[in-house]
Amino acid sequence: MKIIYMGRKKQSVELLKWTLDQGIEVTAVCTDSQFAxxxxxxxxxERNIPVISMEEAEQYILDHPGQIDLAVSxxxxxxxxxxxxxxxxxxxxxxxPAILPDWKGCGGYNIAILKKLPQWGVTAHxxxxxxxxxxxxxxxxxxxxxxxxxxxSLEKVTQDELMELxxxxxxxxxxxxxxxxxxxxxxxxxxxxxxxxxAMKKITEEDLESEDLDVKVRGFWFPPY
Length: 225
Prior knowledge:
alpha/beta
């Protein structure tokens, strides 16, 4: 199986290594290579895998029809467009660190704590031309305690779950090709933009008198940020 791998952050490096160890051919890597300290770009170059832009990946697929089986996105930072969505034989799969269709965009660890949810989860879905609205392949849920969790601690648990989901899904795609999807309406749910998330960080005078102030602090507790 030949894939184009789109990913960033340290978990992306671990999954790129796992992917290669499974004998899956990674034709190219798209990542945050604009940063000199990009761990994914560094590891790809160490393994002699071309690090290319999303536009170059789109052009590669257009120039080599039928040669790429799958595009995968793990915490990739750009909106994926039609050539990468429609060009690969088995489509393009995104791994989302939240429950879909409930929480789209930036509705992540912070929201789980602020909304005092009893469960969180991770989702694998096919990518379409709108953010986080493609057909859902699988949702894995887990319990957590909003009363003690911080954004940082919940991120760690969520990423562990998301990495396992990635391994499950890629193993199945290699065996079966395009996977069946769930009968869920992924047009529903709540989309949280970056601006909305930043606005939630503000603390008003009313917040200072609220018993939920501790929840708000832990909802954005992510040292050193």
